[in-house]
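User: Assemble these into one structure.

Assistant: Restating your components, then the assembled model:
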Amino acid sequence: MSWSNVRLTLAREIRDQLRDRRTMFMIVVLPILLYPLLGVAIVQVSQLAEEAPTRVLIVGRASVPDDPPLVEGHRFVEGLFSPPERARLLELAFAPLDQPAAVAGPADPRLQAGLAVQYGQYDAALYFPSDFRKRLDEFHQALRRGATGLEVPRPVFIYTTATEKSQRAFARLVDVWQRWNDRFRRANLAALDLPESIFAPIEPETIDVAEATGHSGAAIWSKVLPVLLLMWALTGAFYPAVDLCAGEKERGTLETLLSSPAERSEIVLGKLLTIMLFSGLTALLNVVSMGTLGWVVLSKLPGFGPVPLAGAAWMAIALVPASALFSALCLGIAAFARSTKEGQYYLMPLLLGTIPLAVLPAVSGMELNLGNSLIPVMGMVLILRAALEGNYAEALLFLPPVAAVTLGACLLAIRWAVAQFNCESVLFRESERLDVRLWLRHLVRDRRPTPTAAAAAWCGIVILLVRFFAGVVMPVPGDFRGFAVTVLATQVALIAGPALLMGFLLTRSPRQTLLLRWPPWLAPLAAAALAVALHPAVKVLQAGVFRLYPLGEEVQGAMRGLDAVLSAAPFWAVAAILALTPAICEELAFRGFILSGFRQGGATWRAIVLSAIFFGLTHSILQQSLVAAAVGVVIGYLAVRTESIVPAMVFHFVHNTLAATAVSVSRYVTDRWPALECLLRPGTEDGQVFRWPAVLAGGLAAVAILAWFHRLPRTSEIAQ
Amino acid sequence: MIHVRGLTKHFADLQRGSLVALDRISFDAAPGQIYGLLGPNGAGKTTALRVLSTLLKPTAGTVTVNGFDVTTQSSQVRRQIGFMSANTAVYDRMTAWEMVEYFGRLHGLAAEPLRQRMEHVFDRLQMNEIRDLLGAKMSTGMKQKVSVARAIVHDPPVVILDEATAGLDVLVARALLQTVAELREQGKCVVFSTHIMREVEKLCDRVAIIHRGAMLAEGTLAELRERYQENDLEELFFQLISRHEETRSGQAA
């Protein structure tokens, strides 16, 4: 790596970007000029909207109470407003009970008033029944007599939630009515010669401890600023990435640059650092500008304080990995595009995918824990929220996992970006007209013995989508028969079906694609032994995942229902449905078609991991997906080492059988041989039936078996 | 200096399946020689030059540039060459001086020797008037000059020029061809692709006629004229192309 070339590329790209009006608009004009102007405009407009009067129809003026007075002339009494000038904001119109507003419809004045509001003639209406005043007088007289259990007459507020103006009129009416109620209550107390204090509410004293730490009113910042920072870091990376990659391709300068002595990795790093710089600057300036503006505008509101300085420092530090991550992702995606326009389209899904990860923790009250901290972007938002709230100890505690995940994602993204620059089919892709017929003809005509990586990805996506929609549409089975039919239909039609269909249509050798060949004779036995040996470790992993990401009540309920259904069925039937069927169908799809497709590029481990990820994702519960993906890596390794689907199927079958029967089998074993309780602990609530010696012994045995598979000569080598 | 043996390049093509862009091409180019690749559009000239400049990897065959293999020693190859692509692309937001300086620095030239070399190149190519002009404001001729300048600023032993005169007016094209001729006199090995017969006749020491990825003829102009008993290069070119097309049609039938 020549750092001189990286520095040169970086300097050139920075100079280039600084001369680009779009970039300068994003990082300078937008935050420094536009936001303040927008803020001023918003304040002005909101004032206009706030001060606009609303029209209220009062039906039954004759029944409006005089004591305490509510209406004076054509307005509500000024004393019912704070400040009194706000009385002008409610413009009143009056309609007698026998002759309301001129709206065609029913004769009932209350319904007439409703129609008047509905059609926008008035923003709200206040309806007094004809006997309101009479009943109020009766109430007063009864009160003076000392009667109890009195009923107070009630007016009717009519408004519509369909319009914002009507809701504003309603809020003002409620405000007026509450003040009138206060007066009404005080007058009643006076009539009874009682002190007002007997109805005085007990107001507790409040202490905001945040005032002592300088985090007063930081809650709102902790929700808003991390999201803003990350979204601007992404947006800031977006345009430079498109310009530096797709733009350079479009202008034709990339070819000359790539023929210079600079290595592709040096060019990528130079471009990446440029994008990072502009991403960071964009985020920093936009957040500072929006934050300052927000503080100026909102600082007068209660519970709103300045941004804590230490929290701001955390954000500045977090900006570096955030910019690096988004810049590398944008660079990789933009390198794939042929033009700036295409680049913008390709980057849009990244933006859409990041928004929920950034916004969910802010709006859902999600807690910062180990599980959440391991989710890219989300962990960073949560850790920044904790820092802004002043919970530094908590933020520091989860800093290592967040940093590790962000760094890992960042390195993967950089590696991918470099790979894109090394791929000549990406760099020199010519424009092709989108023609479905041509494309389908190409798929069939140019078939290879095994599928392409793109076909494998499509197969995985098709399986995921049909599984998802089928899961939404299919009814939840109530008995084992229904459960068996659902599983069989899903596995055969939705998982094995697409893979087999694509295998026969898109490849010249379905046999080679689906690894339909016999492995060395000992391999299936070794795969079965590996599944048994690895099972305790898988259970430990599963328990860990469930601790990190606890199952929701609904999922737990569904799983209990499933357990009840399965426990009533015979063992052989459970094994056939839960173990044999997935072992055949899922292996044909994931270790057959998908793994073969991803192996086309030659990167075996990448193919194993990608097929395992798709395998994991087909399990509808997230926690199961994580464990299944880990197990999928082991099964993929067996398939690659033996070049056969058989050991993978055997492992899958044994693994699933053990998973379905572990608790009952361990109970049976320990009942017959109590000495084995040093290894097994049946009947536990969490389903964890293995003790640590069993886990360790199983793990060692699994390592030995995997080593045996590793030494196994490949089928191709045997043929040679 | 340049040795090409059995160079083959295939591309995946949606319409035609696998497209053979180059089919077992072989030629040698020596120092102090201008080697011309002559062929119609889509013949495979640009693909061949992209392989020489390590932008594309050959599907089969071997290519060495100044003793370095383009597949296994690509970064050493790139230090030996100055490449000018066919698209006359320059950076819109950089001046002529900045662009040439950038490529000189990438080739490892120190500041002062680079400045002296740039002064020389700018003088030679009469570029001093456009020194501070941004790429976006340059005419095609100006861009072409900048492309030549950045290809030769580091004084490479091999210069690869892809359709260098495409889209240029007569005056600029003539000046550029003069520069190419001077490079030969300086002992450079120049590989020059074109579809203009006059340029080949005027400039090239050896020429390869390429069509649909196949090399139809190769040699000095005198050798080709003698071999095919045709003095007019244009006529010779058409004869070879027609014969190749007839052979292809016969094979297809």
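Chain B touches chain A at residues 12, 14-15, 17-18, 50, 53-57, 75, 78-79, 81, 83-85, 87-94, 98, 102-103, 105-108, 147, 150 (CB under 8 Å).
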